[in-house]
């Protein structure tokens, strides 16, 4: 334990945590600084300066001792306790002013930010306590461990008697004096208790030649094996029940069987005798070093609880279990030190320390390897679902995926009746950082993954019912200007929205806009009170997260974002009773068109100006106006049946029925049966020609996973588009229940790949075709009177060696001449229609090649910011204050540095650190004191 007097430890125990704390709080303070009043700003200055001075004094003292080669003095331990304890006490007392209610909770990176100060300073307090124990336990004087245990035990007994006998007769001067006096008394008692309990263990492990050493297993086994094991069992609530992995832990989830295995191994290694054998002691030293990380981990987890240990011992019969990590840490450290002293006779100090550190890294290394495997399998899964290569075959490890999903759900699941719920202290934070980049996977995506890969029934997400039909547009004005330089229109649509609801509850205005091809939103404003706030163009996921959180506070956000295809969502919140609010949207468009929003229509631009574009040969994207399309050749492509057969979990029993349905349809439509294909669909898609003995292939399929119909349709559309053939598929779904099919969304963004018809069909048990829409709610069957044909004409457009087929309608079309292309930064100009066309082409490219989206997603966001044109990956958002703008920027940076398929959500929070319990207990003590006084 003498090594504790090495001054270099102060750099690690005090300087490093304080530096990290300052860096962390500096970043957060810049976000919500504008929300603090003068008193709060003053307290931030005082406590920040005080902590900075204390940190510098510690650093200077440690530096001086290191240079002069001196050891840490007894006075350091005393002074550190006398300085840091009052600091933490006063900090806790003023916590409600340092973090006032004016700061929204969602702006904090975790619900424990307020107690980070205590968490980071607790190592210094523990270090000071160890120094006092060492200095007051002289080797020259005989110390009895039993006496120290007895003194330590007297403290909680005295506390209990005080609460039962003295406190009822307590006559305070005033409420504040009573509270402060009792809290100070509790702190002093806790220090005395921890001092003597630590000293007792220290005396035990250092005594030589006494009966305590002769019969050391009597006290080593309880401390190193029994108490840790019982502590794990009690924590997981399984003292008298079967151990289950889904049990909620009081201090976190330690239900993994490895915690129990390592606990026993750790205890056995500590209890093994220290024989005089070189090889044996090397083995023992390595073994004890391997598991020392386990001991140190639990010491860190329970270190913040030490200040309330005496209260826990008084209040709970099993409260002493909280002290086990401290006792085990002292015992384990001493045994390692004995091994170190013995091995110094055979090896150099450097070699022994190298062995120690390498051994200590084994468990963290194995954990990291396990987490990296989780990261790989979850990234493969997300890529398959959201960034697939339609030309590639996939095979995901479902066993590993199931385990990874279980872990992710544990990180998300919280229980307010417990400190950590199903999270594992520190390891959960490490998992979230390494595997999920401190983001998460939303519940809807987890449901989708489980449905696709395991055939489970997905859970419906929460529906936002905040929209009020009484909130309506009461005035709409448009102003269009033709820009001759870019040969396009700029139009502003100014809206006045009124809430006619009689309710006193806040209402929301929510609607959608259908934009024609070649038109894009390039600006947005919303009046917040009497101030006109311009919209911020931000990454879509971050903007939606901020909008949702501001909305929960009944503040004043407004947002525009793409839903799917060219459909744009418009939301403004909140509207008070009879409130009138104003907003405006700017649109860049090539041709005049009637703009409709919430049943209100205005004309944008006019037909007096001809503005057809002439494109260059190397342009990757081409815009064809409705007039230009009329001059193209009209043709009829040959349709063919493409059957999508359900081979998901539990569908084998329907195989004969499905074959009969297909045969009946083929016989009744011989012309469409030619060149037909069959895709067997579950988690994956396997396609064969109808002539390739499809029935034999059908019976060889593995009936597993979910019916991932979305992937099957997108894959076929992609391959048919790329083939540029004069044929097109008619999708025939063959399943017993199409409501079990898995769709990510509709297929409107792929509309350019199916110009003939928007229909696909479900083949029912009577071999009849039930029409469904590809562009709107694919699950819903269309009305029986829906007319559909298979002889539609399309426009044929040839460019070089490529042929494109465009829908025969009176609307413009965008042609992606090269489905993969690069954009140069100098091609993008602010609010420029041609730049918007390039961005639209880039989005089409990602639709066809999602496998490129990890890279191109960032480029598309970058070019969207440069052009000020909203794209499907960006959003226009209006917020009301500087703090909201800064948190938006911070979240956006976090999202852009992570996997694009990960999510930001309200439930995304870092784990709550242990010091939260300290404040909870202190608060509980305050209420308890007031209750006791009320009884008098």
Automatic annotation (TrEMBL):
Sequence intervals crossing the membrane: 9-29, 41-67, 74-93, 113-134, 146-170, 182-205, 217-237, 257-275, 282-302, 308-331, 352-372
Sorted UniProt keywords: Membrane, Transmembrane, Transmembrane helix
UniProt domain VIT: residue ranges: 459-589
InterPro entries (alphabetical): MSEP-CTERM, VIT
Lineage: superkingdom: Bacteria
Protein name: MSEP-CTERM sorting domain-containing protein
């Amino acid at each position: 334990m003498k090594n504790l007097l090495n001054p270099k430890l102060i750099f690690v125990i005090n300087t490093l945590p304080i530096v990290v704390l300052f860096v962390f709080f500096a970043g957060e303070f810049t976000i919500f600084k504008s929300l603090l009043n003068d008193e709060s700003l003053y307290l931030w200055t005082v406590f920040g300066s005080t902590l900075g001075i204390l940190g510098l004094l510690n650093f200077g003292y440690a530096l001086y001792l290191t240079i002069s080669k001196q050891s840490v003095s007894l006075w350091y331990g005393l002074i550190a306790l006398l300085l840091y304890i009052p600091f933490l006490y006063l900090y806790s007392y003023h916590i409600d002013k340092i973090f006032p209610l004016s700061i929204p909770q969602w702006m904090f990176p975790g619900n424990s930010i307020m107690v980070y100060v205590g968490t980071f300073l607790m190592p210094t307090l523990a270090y000071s306590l160890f120094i006092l124990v060492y200095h007051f336990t002289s080797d020259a004087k005989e110390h009895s461990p039993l006496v120290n245990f007895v003194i330590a035990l007297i403290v909680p007994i005295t506390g209990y008697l005080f609460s039962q006998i003295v406190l009822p007769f307590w006559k305070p001067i005033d409420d504040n004096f009573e509270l402060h006096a009792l809290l100070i008394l509790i702190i002093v008692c806790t220090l005395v208790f921890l001092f003597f309990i630590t000293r007792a263990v220290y005396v035990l492990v250092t005594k030589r030649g006494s009966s305590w050493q002769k019969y050391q297993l009597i006290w080593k086994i309880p401390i190193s094996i029994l108490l840790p094991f019982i502590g794990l069992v009690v924590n997981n609530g399984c003292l008298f029940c079967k151990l289950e992995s889904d049990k909620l832990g009081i201090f976190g989830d330690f239900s993994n069987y490895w915690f129990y295995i390592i606990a026993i191994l750790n205890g056995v290694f500590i209890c093994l005798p220290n024989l005089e054998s070189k090889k044996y002691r090397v083995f023992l030293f390595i073994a004890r070093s391997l598991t020392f990380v386990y001991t140190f981990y639990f010491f860190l987890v329970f270190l913040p609880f030490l200040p309330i240990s005496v209260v826990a011992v008084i209040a709970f019969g099993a409260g002493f279990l909280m002290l086990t990590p401290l006792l085990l840490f002292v015992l384990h450290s001493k045994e390692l030190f004995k091994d170190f002293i013995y091995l110094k006779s055979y090896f150099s100090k450097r070699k022994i320390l190298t062995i120690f550190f390498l051994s200590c890294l084994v468990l963290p290394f194995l954990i990291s390897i396990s987490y990296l495997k989780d990261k790989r399998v979850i990234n493969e899964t997300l890529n398959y679902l959201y960034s697939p290569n339609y030309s590639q075959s996939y095979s995901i490890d479902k066993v590993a995926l199931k385990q990874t999903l279980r872990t992710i759900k544990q990180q998300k699941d919280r229980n307010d009746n417990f400190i950590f719920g199903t999270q594992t202290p520190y390891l959960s934070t490490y998992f979230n950082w390494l595997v999920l980049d401190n983001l998460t996977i939303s519940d809807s995506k987890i449901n989708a993954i489980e449905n696709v890969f395991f055939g489970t029934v997905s859970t419906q997400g929460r529906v936002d019912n905040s929209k009020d039909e009484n909130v309506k547009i009461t005035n709409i004005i448009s102003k269009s200007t033709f820009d001759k330089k870019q040969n396009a229109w700029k139009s502003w649509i100014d809206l006045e929205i009124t809430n006619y609801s009689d309710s006193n509850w806040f209402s929301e205005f929510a609607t959608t806009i259908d934009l024609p091809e070649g038109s894009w939103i390039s600006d947005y404003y919303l009046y917040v009170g009497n101030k006109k706030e311009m919209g911020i163009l931000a990454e879509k996921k971050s903007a939606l997260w901020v909008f949702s959180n501001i909305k929960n506070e009944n503040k004043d956000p407004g947002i525009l974002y793409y839903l799917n295809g060219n459909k744009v969502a418009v939301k403004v919140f909140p509207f008070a009773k009879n409130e009138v609010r104003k907003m405006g949207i700017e649109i860049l468009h090539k041709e005049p068109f009637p703009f409709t929003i919430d049943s209100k229509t205005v004309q944008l631009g006019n037909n007096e100006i001809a503005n057809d574009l002439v494109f260059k040969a190397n342009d990757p994207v081409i815009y064809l106006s409705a007039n230009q399309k009329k001059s193209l050749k009209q043709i009829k492509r040959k349709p063919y049946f493409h059957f999508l057969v359900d081979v998901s979990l539990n569908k084998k029993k329907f195989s004969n029925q499905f074959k009969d349905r297909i045969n009946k349809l083929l016989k009744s439509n011989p012309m469409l049966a030619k060149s037909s294909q069959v895709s067997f669909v579950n988690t994956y898609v396997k396609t064969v020609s109808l002539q390739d003995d499809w029935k034999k292939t059908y019976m060889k399929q593995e009936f597993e996973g979910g019916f991932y119909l979305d992937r099957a349709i997108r894959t076929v559309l992609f391959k048919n588009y790329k083939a540029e053939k004069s044929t097109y598929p008619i999708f025939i779904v063959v399943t017993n229940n199409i409501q079990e099919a898995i769709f990510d969304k509709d297929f409107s963004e792929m509309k350019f790949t199916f110009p003939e018809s928007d229909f696909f069909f479900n083949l029912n048990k009577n071999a009849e075709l039930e029409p469904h829409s590809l562009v709107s709610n694919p699950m819903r069957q269309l009305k029986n009177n829906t007319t559909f044909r298979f002889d539609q004409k399309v426009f044929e457009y040839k460019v070089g060696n490529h042929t494109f087929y465009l829908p025969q309608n009176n609307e413009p079309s965008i042609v992606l001449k090269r489905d993969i292309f690069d954009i140069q930064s100098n091609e993008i100009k602010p609010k420029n229609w041609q730049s918007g066309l390039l961005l639209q082409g880039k989005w089409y490219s990602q639709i066809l090649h999602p496998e490129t989206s990890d890279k191109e997603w960032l480029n598309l966001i970058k070019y969207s910011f440069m052009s000020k044109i909203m794209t499907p990956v960006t959003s226009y958002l209006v917020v009301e204050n500087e703090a909201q703008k800064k948190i938006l920027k911070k979240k956006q940076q976090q999202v852009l540095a992570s996997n694009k398929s990960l999510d930001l959500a309200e439930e995304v929070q870092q784990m709550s650190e242990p010091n939260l319990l300290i404040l909870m207990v202190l608060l509980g003590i305050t209420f308890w004191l007031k209750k006791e006084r009320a009884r008098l």
